[in-house]
Specification:
Length: 381
Amino acid sequence: MKSSRNNRDDFSKEVKRIVALRAGHHCSFRDCPQPTAGPSDESPTSVTMIGKAAHIHAASPGGRRYLEAMTRDERVDISNAIWLCANHADLIDRDEKTFSGDELRKMKREHEAKCAERQRRADLAGDSIPDLIALGPDIVFTGELISVDSATWSFRLQDFVDGDLYALLAFIDNYEETAVLDRYVLVNLLGDGRALAGAPSLMKETEGYIFRCPVVPRAARIRAADLPRDFALSENHDLMVVNGNIAEVSGLEALPQLVKTCLSHQKGESPFHRDFGTRLAEYYKLLFDSPWLGHFLKLEVIRQASIPYNDTLQNQQYTPLLCVERVFGVEILANAPTKNWLPIRVELDVKGVGRWQRELSVFIPHEPALRTAVDDLLKGA
């Protein structure tokens, strides 16, 4: 749906967050040193934000570099967005000849490449990014885990990677209205997460913010040997027939297939379980050549391993990965999917098995076509 404001094709909140993340929250304009977010002197909780997701080709007719041939989907796609400080966002709209679409795309590519290179150098030097912590689906920050007990996890907050201080305060204020499945905290360093038992709290100290999360006890897992029976899938992801019958698999033999099918199920694609599934395809589409991608994928696997899903149809609660107790690592093994299948390596702590590693492929659709088809089906019902 188009924005009611002058029929502009505006970017979604998600695209704005990700284009800022890919730019390292710094202006993408050539040689501009300007960070686009930082603390404000107004109060201990105030933030100054001067960044903008600017359109490379304008959002509405009459704007700079507007292309009539572009579809709305192309106009609101992240490929048409560049992250700039307020000054340079205004500058590119005053000089269309100098700042052509090709020039802005080149500027964006070069800036994101520099961000990726800085991250790679930090990794090689042993100065990898601090621990990534996710609070619900829309807030990710770097921080230090400072205490853990059966009822509370506490962190020292450093920098926001996704979301900001306003989003964090809104999450705390609106906790009771937040969907139950979105009330969680995940910690990459631990490879683990917990559902929240109540609203988090934030306290200002001389060294920054201390963030405390009341958590519920660790979710129950089953032993890998007790994994339920399922139809067996071939290497080509098809059902197999053995002696005239559809082959089945269960127990430890079912574990690789469980991980593969769980991570390949996209959130929203089932008409009966709209909240079930992962955001792996969404993250891949937005972060496919960013050094952040692997970190976000690991957070999502941790969520599938540690946060219970409430299955109202079967009247039971379970973690989607059933027997996975901890996520040690998620490594992407190819630059791009092959026929929509992306090879990865996962290293997991499996109940009844211990440390378990496997290379497998997860399904990454080009577009959420199935979700759209399901939406259309439900509308027509």
